[in-house]
Amino acid sequence: MSALSVVVENLVRKYDKIVALEGINVSVRKGELFGFIGPDGAGKTSLFRILTTLLIPNSGYATVEGFDVVKDYKKIRDIIGYMPGRFSLYQDLSVEENLNFFASIFNTTPKENYHLIKDIYQQIEPFKDRPAGKLSGGMKQKLALSCALIHKPEALFLDEPTTGVDAVSRKEFWEMLKNLQNFGISIVVSTPYMDEASLCDRVALMQNGKIMEINTPKNIQSEYPYQIAAVRTDNMYDIINHLQENKKVVSAFRFGDNIHISYNKNELNENEIKSFLESKGHQIIRLNKVEADIEDCFMAFMNENKHDGI
């Protein structure tokens, strides 16, 4: 039996003249929590729709649990769980009715696989008679996950499951995913939130239909080649434009309340950055060295791809 849950080779998907996926190559190990990280338009949803047999690729090859996504689509649908980006359950049915309905589709019952969803479903059980359409965002998310798991899938696909959900619900959701790994389920998730990358075993950084890097979050961060400083001044409006005028600054972008500057420490130091900003009229300059996180790495890969003509 293969140790891989998902295999994708040279996958291409086009919509007329728009290339959504351009030669994607990636594999997901059994039992792994794998994340596709990237902004809107990166190609994540197109990839998920192909892997869940809802979309046919123009070319290339993909398998889920050893089954071809085109030839064996019926078999794949029996062994996967899928949670699309938009809430897709029946709004007029109650929480309990939705769960019973999805269990019946797979010829099972909520009771048979209740151990899989117990920790999740107990949080929404007090609202079991409430129509799904009247649940909060976090509760809808938990119901959708319960319905995707009720038939004990071998692989679970979650397309941007935490988009539009509050920070507390996001944290709870990722804790649930970590617990689900104990049951040996392969979990493939997509997200535009860079901070969620660190919660995955491995990630693929995606942009414009291409994968820029695949690795563990720690390895991606440790291989970042530049020094980073977090900077604030009294003039945050013009600071990025000013920093981009300095040819020794590799990149500068907004990061929360600060600006993250990347630079080669052999070419530039903190005092020189402060002096440069002072020459541009900035005052009250606060500058601290920081460690690279996934967002810094993502921005660096984007810059490299631009320079390579991608």
What count of helical segments does DSSP give?
A: 10
Proportion in β-strands: 25-35%
Low-confidence runs of at least 5 consecutive residues: none
Extended strand count: 14
Biggest sheet, spatial arrangement of strands: 6-7-8-3-9-10
Order of helices and strands: EEEHEEHEHHHEHEEEHEHEEHEH
The name of the CATH superfamily of the largest domain reads P-loop containing nucleotide triphosphate hydrolases
Quickly give the structural class: alpha/beta
Mean pLDDT: 91
N- and C-termini, Cα separation? 37 Å
The CATH topology of the largest domain is given as Rossmann fold
CATH architecture of the largest domain, please? 3-Layer(aba) Sandwich
Biggest sheet, open or closed, and with what strands and sense?
Answer: 6 strands, mixed
Compute the CA-based radius of gyration.
22 Å
Q: Based on Cα principal axes, name the global outline.
A: globular
- The tally of structural domains comes to 2
Share of helical residues: 25-40%
Q: Give the C-level CATH assignment of the largest domain.
A: Alpha Beta
Describe what this molecule looks like in 3D.
The protein has 310 residues and is an alpha/beta fold. The chain has two domains: 4-221, Rossmann fold, CATH 3.40.50.300; 225-291, 2-Layer Sandwich (Alpha-Beta Plaits), CATH 3.30.70. The protein is 32% helix and 28% strand. It has ten helices and 14 strands. It has helices at residues 44-51, 73-79, 95-105, 114-124, 137-149, 167-180, 217-222, 239-244, 270-279, 294-307, and strands at residues 4-15, 18-29, 33-37, 59-64, 67-68, 80-83, 155-159, 186-191, 202-207, 210-215, 227-232, 249-255, 258-263, 286-290. It is globular, with a radius of gyration of 22 Å. The mean pLDDT is 91.
